[in-house]
């Protein structure tokens, strides 16, 4: 069952499509990693899914609710952790949560209990009565997550949740995301950090220039990407200095001073060895390989710019 669906979702600012005919689905209970470079349209997509901004065209549905028609209902079942802001520095961690609980009309005693439980969940129980202005970036991120969980949402939208965190803080955030999945939450989180998405996501969507380039599980993405292509790694004894290859190649990318990754429509290992040998290179290894998620991401988003 899909809990998030979009149909040609589009948002245009000053003639430029920040989100361009987006069609995506997210399964209930999944962790969906929304991966893309800065400015790709990740935050705009989240704001559209929450009904915080209106689309130029297209539709979005969360738990079967039309976001455009019933944005308040969507907010009632959703939690949102923004990339920055959203906290009151002069209030304590506990008081921040109590203040936000009023917007959800949670009874005071229930709100107190919920706030204490969430502070314990995110590891801030010992800092509950400290003012947030003195918190580290990691502590603020954890409090933002607790705030997003106040209304016990079905769906969590996390915008760059590990942004600005040190390695330990990033590990702690990943562990929290895994725990939320175990609790039955659907987590939709955006990131420009490939390793973060790769480590915790059940499914991944890669976005660039407002367009969803590919989506699915990691294995599905690799399978879709390699359809109709063969991936070949070539290593030479000498450093490679190449402007182009004459052999039947779709794309090629340098992967170090003396290594190439070649994309072709068929197995052209013999032709590659012959061509490179003719250029004076000694080929010491040539083999077929399955692309990594990093290679898929770089090729889809940047093309040959990274070569």
Automatic annotation (TrEMBL):
Pfam families listed in its UniProt record: ABC_tran, DrrA1-3_C
GO molecular function, one term: ATP binding
Keyword Nucleotide-binding: yes
InterPro entries for the chain: AAA+_ATPase, ABC_transporter-like_ATP-bd, DrrA1/2-like_C, P-loop_NTPase
Gene3D superfamilies given in the database record: P-loop containing nucleotide triphosphate hydrolases
Top-level division of the source organism's lineage: Archaea
Domain ABC transporter: 4-234
Assigned keywords, A-Z: ATP-binding, Nucleotide-binding, Transport
Family of the protein in this entry: Belongs to the ABC transporter superfamily.
PANTHER family attached to this UniProt entry: ABC TRANSPORTER, ATP-BINDING PROTEIN
Name of this chain's protein: ABC transporter
Organism the protein comes from: Thermococcus celericrescens
């Amino acid at each position: 069952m899909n809990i998030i669906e979009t149909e040609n979702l589009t948002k245009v600012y000053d003639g430029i499509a920040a989100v361009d005919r987006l069609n995506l689905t997210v399964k209930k209970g999944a962790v969906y990693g929304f991966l893309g470079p800065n400015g790709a349209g990740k935050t705009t997509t989240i704001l559209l899914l929450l009904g915080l901004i209106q689309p130029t065209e297209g539709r979005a549905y969360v738990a079967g609710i039309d976001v455009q028609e019933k944005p308040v209902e969507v907010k009632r079942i959703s939690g949102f952790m923004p990339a920055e802001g959203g906290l009151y520095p002069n209030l304590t961690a506990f008081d921040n949560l109590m203040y936000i609980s009023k917007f959800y009309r949670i009874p005071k005693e229930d709100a107190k209990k919920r706030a204490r439980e969430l502070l314990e969940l995110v590891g801030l129980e010992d800092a509950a009565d400290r003012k947030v202005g003195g918190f580290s970036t990691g502590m603020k991120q954890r409090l933002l997550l607790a705030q997003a969980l106040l209304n016990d949402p079905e769906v969590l939208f996390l915008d760059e949740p590990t942004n600005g965190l040190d390695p330990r803080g990033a590990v702690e955030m990943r562990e929290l995301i895994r725990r939320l999945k175990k609790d039955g939450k659907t987590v939709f989180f955006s990131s420009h950090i490939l390793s973060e998405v790769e480590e915790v996501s059940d499914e991944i969507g890669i976005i660039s220039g407002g367009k969803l380039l590919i989506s699915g599980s990691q294995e599905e993405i690799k399978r879709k990407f390699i359809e109709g292509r063969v991936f070949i790694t070539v290593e030479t004894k000498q450093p490679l200095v190449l402007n182009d290859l004459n052999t039947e190649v779709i794309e090629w990318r340098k992967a170090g001073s003396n290594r190439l990754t070649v994309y072709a429509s068929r197995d052209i290992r013999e032709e590659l060895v012959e061509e490179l040998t003719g250029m004076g290179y000694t080929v010491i290894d040539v083999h077929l390989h399955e692309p990594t998620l990093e290679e898929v991401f770089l090729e889809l988003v940047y093309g040959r710019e990274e070569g």
